[in-house]
Design brief:
The chain is α+β, with helices and mostly antiparallel strands. It contains 1 helix and 4 strands.
């Protein structure tokens, strides 16, 4: 199925700024509110269901014999029609 990017943001931030951003998202999730992602003029609001699929991924990209790039990704996923996704 084709992918449509609704929002994307990438910037260098301090660990404290990242924690604050994640905390704001976490507070919205915990209280059952919609989450709004904003960066500059770009913004999107989404309403995750009560039990979305949650994926955490740690990756290393680069050559086997040299330094690479490390990343941690957090992803919430759900069907747009409100149904539950099957975890494979």
């Amino acid at each position: 199925m084709p992918e449509e990017v609704l929002f994307e943001s990438e910037s260098r931030r301090s660990r404290e700024e990242i924690a604050s951003y994640l905390r704001t998202v976490a507070d919205s999730l915990e209280s059952g509110n919609a989450i709004t992602l904003t960066h500059g003029e770009q913004s999107v609001t989404m309403e995750p269901p009560a039990r979305p699929t949650f994926e955490v991924k740690a990756e290393r990209e680069g050559p086997v014999d040299g330094p690479g790039e490390l990343s941690v990704e957090f992803e919430l996923e759900w069907d747009e029609d409100g149904g539950d996704l099957e975890i494979e």
